[in-house]
Write the structure tokens for this entry.
Amino acid sequence: MKEQLERILEAATKQLKAASDPEKLEEMRVQYLGKKGEITSILKQMGGLSPEERPKMGQLANSIREQIETELKAKSDQIKKELAAKKLEAERIDVTLPGKEITIGRPHPLNAVLDEVEEIFLGMGFDIVDGPEVETDHYCFEALNMPRSHPARDTQDTFYINENVVLRTQTSSVQIRTMEERNPPIRIISPGRVYRSDAVDATHSPLFHQIEGLVIDKGITFGDLCGTLDMLMKKLYGKDAQIRLRPHHFPYTEPSAEVDLMCFNCGGKGCSMCKNEGYVELLGAGMVHPKVLEGCGIDPEVYSGFAFGIGLERITMGRFGINDMRLLYENDMRFLGQF
Ligand code: DAH
């Protein structure tokens, strides 16, 4: 039995020397020290020994077990150290290398201008409200005094979900929703996406953005409209900005006007940027039609108001001198990085 034990120790020591990973050590622990291990099975044979030999063999077996345990532990510590050192070596970083450049994003030009416009109107006491892009024919046209037969619908062909539900062509729908929900005084702007079945070119897109404005109170006049728009343009384009109002027709305002901005490039003389007009068209506006007020339960004898609809693309292009609307949607970083 003594020889058996000594052979086990010898074999274990040899195996340990060759071992190089934690799995192998675990295997050895089971093989030698485990419940069904070699030393345990020898201890089980102790019953067959004489009473004098039993304690001696017991002592020897225990000391060999302890020795194997100690050696296993020592080897395990050594392997762990080696692995840690290898890992450190593999993950070594050179802190003197130049870092990776992090590019910081910025708002899209449309959002940058929208943020500015919102700030300007918030400063004048307006609320910002939202409205649905999928809209009923009623809110998009009918309640704005544009019945199905109205010729003004021709210029606003859109995408029909069904006969009564459309992708809205104008944010003017939010005027109606707001007047139905709130009592005067009302002072809101409502920015958002609008849709028309237009082919894409330098000044058209089937999806674009408008900012609607609506003010309803007692004693609101056309002068308030002019003052508000003048203020907006001077804040957006600088104190020399000048607007011009041209008579126009919108079914939901009376009187109505189209509002132009004097061309920055030529100061109104006419140049290639303004197509020799001297002015660039920016938005539509007018005094809210009494029929529209009445339809929303507001008494036109007591209240009056003005409304306007601004094309966000148009004022953004004017602001940054962009000559093709498509550039705003292509998400080319070389273009967007300039603003
Ligand atoms: N909805 C018009 C359009 O899309 C713009 C507009 C004109 C809005 C006059 C208004 C307004 O609120 O009073 O062309």
